[in-house]
Each structure stands twice: as C-alpha cells, then as structure tokens.
Amino acid sequence: MRRLVESAEAAGMSRREIAQSLRLSGISQQNINHLLRGSIPKVDLSTNAYRRAESRARVLMGGDAAREVRERYMRTQTLRE
User: Fold this and answer.
1) Using CB atoms within 10 A as the burial measure, which of 24, 57, 61, 81 is most buried?
2) Is the dihedral of CA 44, 49, 53, 58 positive or negative?
3) The pTM is what?
4) What is the pLDDT at residue 79?
5) Is 40 helix (H, G, I), strand (E, B) or coil?
C-alpha cells in the first residue's frame, strides 16, 4: 500500500486526493493516516480470521498457499511478543 501512495504522490496527486481515493476503496481512516505518514499500522489478527484465511487459501489455491498463510501468521505472532 505504501508503494501505491508513493506512486500517487509521484503522479502529482495531493494528499487530500490520495486520502479520498483510499477512503473510497474501503481503507480505514486510521490506516490512511499511517500510510500518509509512512508508518506501519498495528495489525491484530484474531485466531478466527487466521483460520478463515487459511481455509480459504486451501480451497482457492491449495495446500501450499494454506501453509504460507499459516507460516506468515505464526511470524506475526512471534513479532508481537
């Protein structure tokens, strides 16, 4: 997402236009603020969200994708500790 903001800035869009575009795309105001500041918003995935994502990845893309989702989730949990 940060690359998207950088590209929009390079294309001459104002911060207000970028924020409006992100808002219309369903991005929360908190995340928009972080993106415009160049900081990383806190991500707090629930166990249920992770399980749904893993299940969906398995159905749509197979076991390798589901393993990748699981590994990424585990990495985020160790970073939070």
Assistant:
1) 57
2) positive
3) 0.55
4) 67
5) coil
